[in-house]
Design a protein that fits this description.
By secondary structure, this protein is an alpha/beta fold. The protein has three domains: 2-113, no CATH class; 117-200, Rossmann fold; 221-414, no CATH class. The chain is built from 16 helices and eight strands. A four-stranded parallel beta sheet has the order 2-1-3-4, with helices on both faces. It has a two-stranded antiparallel sheet with strand order 5-6. Strands 7-8 form a two-stranded parallel sheet. It is globular.
């Protein structure tokens, strides 16, 4: 899976840079208090900056010049803060070596892992169209079109194909033999369904049924008490940390919401949680107080009911911060499907198969669907978000929760999405 590959490379990157960071500190600064709290916080900030500036995306290194400039600027700022605190001139060579090492390491990993892979699709129709659209987002994939009348074995050899994606629901016996011979010969073969799970991180509901759900691996979060206890501990720790860090922001938000428009600062609303049980979710009010005088409506992009500061809060997700109370109460998790209103759920369950499956787990402050899919408010958007929610429920792990947490941080920093 692409996300797992990226996380593995990020781990290697962090471990190597961590070794360089502390070795330099040992040489240039001090042998005492080597792993002090301040140095660990400093290194965490440097790595978080590398993630946010896309220096932990190991793709074509020649296209990363702007990213290198950004991370160099951030590194200089961090080291200058350290310098003004200590006035230690040895920080200058320390900084220069660390920046050079960071950029060089990014280049070396990119060279090592970035290899153009020739990809073709066997099949036609809507499946093929979706895969072609997906391939465009992977710079290490070069798509070569295969026509149904061509000889697949000959075409694969002539074009040095590394990956064949099957976009045909039913294969004839001769087709199976040809594709199997290619697979046994070292060519990677993926079904359309597997490609979408591994590369797009979603389970398309139109291609699953009850038999698939019965046989599918995963879904450990539904039966593992240990996994649920770990998730609950993670929720409490993150809620405490973020609650403390965000307290000044929440105080300022309270004042601005109060001054901008009449009405309560905190808006509470019934939402559907785990096992379909309703609970009160809390948010900073981002709409006018009379926003639903004509009944419940889908939120929209550039919704006229949203206040100016409310629009800013939605982009940065400040409006969600009061839901930390719901996390402490155990009504919500830090990571999970976003809770929806019953009036919309009844409508969506009629239109979307298996929509009720997202209520098998606690809803979350943020989730896989929120970081993978742009803002949307329609039945079709709800269907696409369900595909990501099902992937999350099926593949849940603390590892995936951490990925979502960092992706959410990046989204908040750049003010994109919801």
């Amino acid at each position: 899976m692409e996300q797992e590959k990226g996380m593995t490379l990020n781990t290697i990157y962090i471990l190597i840079l961590g070794s360089i960071f502390y070795l330099e500190k040992y040489i240039f600064i001090s042998r005492e208090n080597l792993f002090s709290l301040y140095s660990m916080i400093g290194f965490f900030i440097l790595m978080l900056s590398a993630y946010v500036t896309d220096n932990m995306k190991f793709q074509r290194y020649k296209d990363k010049f702007v990213n290198f400039i950004l991370i160099a600027i951030v590194d200089v700022i961090c080291f200058m803060i350290w310098f003004f605190y200590s006035w230690d001139l040895s920080l200058i060579p320390y900084m220069l070596i660390f920046i050079a090492s960071q950029i060089l390491l990014t280049v070396l990993i990119s060279i090592a892992v970035f290899k153009i892979k020739n990809v073709t699709i066997y099949g036609e129709g809507e499946m093929k169209k979706r895969v072609v659209d997906s391939i465009e987002h992977f710079p290490d994939y070069r798509y070569i079109d295969f026509k149904e009348n061509d000889d697949l074995v000959k075409f694969t050899k002539e074009n040095d194909i590394s990956l064949i994606i099957l976009c045909k629901e039913k294969l004839e016996s001769n087709e199976i033999r040809d594709i199997l011979s290619l697979k046994l010969g070292g060519i990677e073969v993926k079904s359309y369904f597997d490609y979408m799970i591994e590369n797009e991180g979603k389970i398309e509901v139109e291609f699953i049924d009850e038999e698939w759900l019965l046989q599918a691996y995963g879904f450990k979060i539904l039966r593992s008490q240990i996994q649920n206890n770990i998730k609950r501990l993670f929720d409490i720790i993150m809620a405490i940390i973020i609650g403390i860090m965000a307290l000044p922001v929440m105080i300022i938000a309270t004042i601005i919401v109060r001054l901008e428009s009449p009405g309560p600062v905190i808006y509470s609303q019934d939402r559907v949680g785990e096992n379909g049980k309703e609970f009160k979710v809390h948010k900073f009010r981002s709409m006018r107080n009379d926003a639903e005088k004509d009944g419940a409506k889908w939120a929209q992009v550039n919704d006229p009911r949203v206040t100016k500061f409310g629009n800013f809060m939605r982009k940065t997700r400040i409006d969600e911060l009061p839901q930390l109370v719901n996390v402490f109460k155990g009504q919500m998790s830090f990571i999970g499907p976003r809770p929806e209103r019953m009036v919309f759920i009844k409508e969506l369950e009629k239109e979307i198969p298996y929509y009720n499956l997202r209520h098998m787990v606690k809803p979350g402050l943020t989730g896989w669907a929120q970081v993978m899919y742009p803002y949307g408010a329609s039945v079709e958007d709800a269907r696409k978000k369900l595909e990501y929610d099902l992937y999350y429920i099926k593949h849940h792990s603390l590892y995936l929760d951490l990925i979502i947490m960092f992706m959410t941080f990046k989204t908040v920093v750049f003010g994109k999405g919801r």
